[in-house]
Each structure stands twice: as C-alpha cells, then as structure tokens.
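Priority: low. Protein: Phosphotransferase. Input follows.
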Amino acid sequence: MKLMENWLEHLLGKEWEVFPAGGATGEAYFAQKEGQKLFLKRNSSPFLAVLSAEGIVPKLVWTKRMENGDVITAQHWLSGRELKAKDMDGENVARLLHKIHSSKELLEMLKRMGKQPLTPHSVLDDLNQALKYEPYIFPEISQAVQYLEKNVQEVDFEDKVVCHCDINHNNWMLSDHQQLYLIDWDGAMIADPAIDLGPLLYSYIKEEDWGSWLSAYGLELTENMLKRMYWYVLAQAITSILWNKAKDNVKELGTGLTSLQVLLSKIHQEN
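Result:
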C-alpha cells in the first residue's frame, strides 16, 4: 500500500500529500495540497463518468490511464458526512434513488459495458450453486429457498433499471451544502428496482410508512411490489448468511439468522 502512495505522489507531484481512504479493496486514497483535496481511486469503473455527469457522485476531476494499464480517477473530496440510519426516511433519499432508477443514460452505459440483466432465476441459480458446497444448511435457509423457488415466476419484472445493490446508509453522503450523493458503485447491476427498494424499506423505514416513502419515490405500494421486495430481501439475507459463515463471522452470522427468522415469519402474509 505504501508503494501505491509513493507512486501516486510521484504522479501528482511532490507538493501533494497522499494517504489511504480505507475500505475493503485498498484501492482508494485521499490527496491534498494547499487547501485542494481529491479522492483518488485505482481502476474505477468507466461508469463513474456518467454518474458524475448526472450529479449522483461527487464531480469527476480527471482520469489518467497509466503505462501498466491501470486507470486513476480523481474526484472532488466531499466535505460532508455519511447519512445515519435515521436519515434514510428522507424525501431526498427517495428522490435520488428515483433519479437513478429512471436514468436512461446510466442504463445505456451499463449495457455498453456488457452488463446482463439480473433476473430472479439467475439469483436463485447462484444461491443454489453456492449451497451445493455447504456441508450444513440451516433449516431457515432451506425454508427460505423453498419460498424463493415457489415464487420465482411471480416476481419476474420486465422493466429493469440501473440498481446500486448496496444501499447501506454508509454509502449515502450529504455535503455541507446539503447535496446528496450515492457512492461505491462497484456492485451496480441492471435489475428490478425492488432489489434496492426492498432492503432500504425493510432496513430503515417503519412498515406503516412504506406507502408514503414510496409515494415520495414515485410509486404506489402494490401487492406485486411487496412480493418482489420481500423475495429479494429474502435472497439477500441468505447471501449475507453464507458470506458470514464462510468468513467465520460468528456474531454477524447469528444476527443474520435472527433476521432471516423474522423475515420467514412474514411468509404467511405473502400468501
């Protein structure tokens, strides 16, 4: 990592100070010089330029392709804060997510990048493939998979859009000027908008407020939307449990199983 910092300092010039920005990949850095601040990332998706043009992420300042093939992007360093869980019920969140899901420019860019639409069948196939290698399957997972298989045809939705696929409140940034951004687009997919809406509503919004939140987003809360959101939340809960089991994250695994049990208790409401 220190080698990369030195390399970036050489790229920018000696007057720039470079230091890691954290994160799981170790590909992100901050740089500053005389009041100027940049967020640097190695090998960001070309999708970033369109996101910047749409005002969804902080402004892209420049992109440089290096001799070794790496691409370095520089964005304005956002002066602001991450959203807290309690902030997620705001209309600004609903409006920005609607803007993302409605953007033809974002959709065309992902298609040009070769992204194939995510379908319920492909989600289910991936889950079943992962479960083949599990020596022990929790009963809750077996029950959840049975529900997914039983309802996979009913939740197929034709009008797929660009979805972020990780709407955790830590990925929402509010600038000091009250401009909201959604960052960390490495997992973006072309999918049913329910794949974003379900986790957001289930994680952050009181159930009695779902209708009003979706109204601010621009949708009516229908039985079909409820079923699609539930299906994807259930699928993501299984994925999270399998990931934590593989990583031996005991505490997170227990929390995930408890959450899955709560979700499964709602099945009778969906039938």
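The chain has a mean pLDDT of 90. The chain is about 45% helix and 15% strand.
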